[in-house]
């Protein structure tokens, strides 16, 4: 395993462990705040943190499993575990959003909304949770930008989504304490549920695309194509195909070389090009096929 990949896996593991630790701390703090205030928006934030703990723990397990090297049964590695975990995260977030939305709607249609209590304590706890969440999100975004790990990116998205409900819970508690507007709490909870649903849809789509072997990010594909087209000794390329599995990108590329040169010379060009692509995109797994310039495909060769 190359040093960049080892570094990336260590970073992914650190982000996963930090996520689980933060979720545990926030659950304890928000449970106390909910017990003290009775705020539904705090309850929504508590439920989201409970969900965070489950999906973060599953995500950490997926990161550990995906880091396993390829074996006889999994020749391309175990990276799809990241996509499965991300898809599971999306489903859990959708279910949580539905429960919160139903509870908020029921409270809104009651004739007498519940009065909130101990708003100051609740505000302090929610402020603490926001500071802790911001610190975690900043670290996760740094790791995800470096490694491209989908589980870390998904964790970062839903923790980032936690910030708005958290801020909304503070506003609801302030509105209750100063103006007696208890219904603001339910409105904030509905908004939080909507944001969670949108975030889950984004996470789920990315994971689904990867599991269905959708091509990699167009910018990455274009970058690989530019490296290949500018490489000395390469007269052209074709059949550049990519697919993503977790944070790994699998690349197949056919390059066109001078058919009169020796096999050793052709191999050196292809090997040097592969190293260049890996330097630019350490998360890639690259296979290069070499064709003579102007070769005509045999009629019996498959087009794909």
Describe it:
It is a single chain. The radius of gyration is 25 Å and the shape is elongated. The model has no long low-confidence stretch (mean pLDDT 76). Strands 1-2-3 form a 3-stranded mixed sheet. It has helices at 3-37, 40-66, 80-109, 119-147, 150-179, 183-211, 218-229, 263-280, and strands at 236-245, 248-257, 284-292. A hairpin with a 2-residue loop joins strand 1 (236-245) and strand 2 (248-257). The chain folds into 2 domains: 3-211, Alpha-lytic protease prodomain-like, CATH 1.20.1510; 218-292, Alpha-Beta Plaits. The longest helix has 35 residues, at 3-37. The protein is mainly alpha-helical. 40% of the residues are buried.
CATH topology of the largest domain: Alpha-lytic protease prodomain-like
| Helix-residue proportion | 55-70%
Proper CATH architecture of the largest domain: Up-down Bundle
Nearest-integer average pLDDT: 76
Give the low-pLDDT segments.
none
CATH class category name of the largest domain: Mainly Alpha
Task: Give a count of the beta strands, DSSP E runs of length 2 or more.
Answer: 3
Give the ordered list of helices and strands.
HHHHHHHEEHE
């Amino acid at each position: 395993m190359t040093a960049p990949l080892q570094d990336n896996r260590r970073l992914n593991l650190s982000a996963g462990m930090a996520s689980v630790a933060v979720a545990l701390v926030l659950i304890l703090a928000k449970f106390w705040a909910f017990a003290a205030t009775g705020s539904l928006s705090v309850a929504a934030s508590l439920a989201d943190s409970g969900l965070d703990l489950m999906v973060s723990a599953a995500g950490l397990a997926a990161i550990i499993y995906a880091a396993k090297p390829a074996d006889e049964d999994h020749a391309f590695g175990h990276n799809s575990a990241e996509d499965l975990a991300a898809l599971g995260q999306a489903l859990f977030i959708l279910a949580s959003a539905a429960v919160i939305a139903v509870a908020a709607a029921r409270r809104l249609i009651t004739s007498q909304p519940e009065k909130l209590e101990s708003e100051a304590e609740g505000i302090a706890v929610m402020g603490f949770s926001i500071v802790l969440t911001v610190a975690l999100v900043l670290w996760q975004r740094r790791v995800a930008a470096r490694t491209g790990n989908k589980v870390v990116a998904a964790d970062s998205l839903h923790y980032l989504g936690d910030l708005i409900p958290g801020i909304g819970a503070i506003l609801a508690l302030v509105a209750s304490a100063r103006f007696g507007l208890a219904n603001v709490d339910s409105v904030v909870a509905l908004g939080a549920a909507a944001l969670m649903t949108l975030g889950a849809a984004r996470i789920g789509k990315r994971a689904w695309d990867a599991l269905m072997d959708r091509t990699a990010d167009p910018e990455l594909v274009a970058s690989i194509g530019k490296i290949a087209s500018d490489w000395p000794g390469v007269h052209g390329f074709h059949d550049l195909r990519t697919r993503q599995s977790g944070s790994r990108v699998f690349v197949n590329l056919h390059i066109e070389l001078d058919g009169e040169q020796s096999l050793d010379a052709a191999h050196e060009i292809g090997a040097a090009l592969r190293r260049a692509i890996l330097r630019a995109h350490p998360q890639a797994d690259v296979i290069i096929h070499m064709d003579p310039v102007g070769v005509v495909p045999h009629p019996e060769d498959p087009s794909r």
